[in-house]
Specification:
Blueprint: H1 2-21, H2 25-38, H3 43-46, H4 51-75, H5 79-95, H6 102-126, H7 130-138
Helix pairs in contact: 1-2, 1-5, 2-4, 4-5, 4-6
């Protein structure tokens, strides 16, 4: 789980976001977050996960992608993103073993998405604007 978190952060934040952000930061945030979420569709084929569960995971991954790209953009470091991503993956592995009814899973994922989005909005307001200053200097 640690390696997957590292690799996905390098791809979606380190390469994809960084390359698009040179031209348009808002587009880079959206594209990085959405492609990160859509990238989790592969779990439909390789994990035996049902369609509804996979769609919930994709929605959660988009929200988490938005949070991680915010951390990376505002903080300037990929290390917190790698740690958070790896922790989510590891904890998710244990949570998938729990036998929860579909309605419970939907409520669980809705709560997780709401918490993630709320936390991201807090991060936008509180993290230092290190990357904003660097972007302004480079233009």
């Amino acid at each position: 789980m640690l390696c997957v978190g590292f690799l996905e952060e390098v791809i979606f934040r380190g390469l994809l976001f960084a390359s698009i952000a040179k031209d348009n930061v808002k587009s880079a945030i959206i594209i990085s977050s959405v492609t990160f979420g859509i990238g989790h569709i592969i779990n439909l084929f390789n994990s035996g996960m049902g369609l509804v569960s996979n769609l919930c995971q994709i929605g959660f991954a988009v929200a988490v992608g938005f949070m991680l790209v915010t951390i990376f953009y505002r903080g300037g470091s990929m290390l917190p993103c790698i740690i958070v991503h790896s922790a989510i993956n590891t904890l998710g592995t244990f949570a998938n073993d729990a036998d929860i009814a579909m309605q419970g899973q939907l409520i669980h994922i809705a709560v997780l998405i709401a918490i993630t989005v709320a936390y991201t909005l807090i991060l936008i307001k509180t993290l230092p604007k290190k990357q904003l200053a660097n972007a302004a200097e480079n233009k």
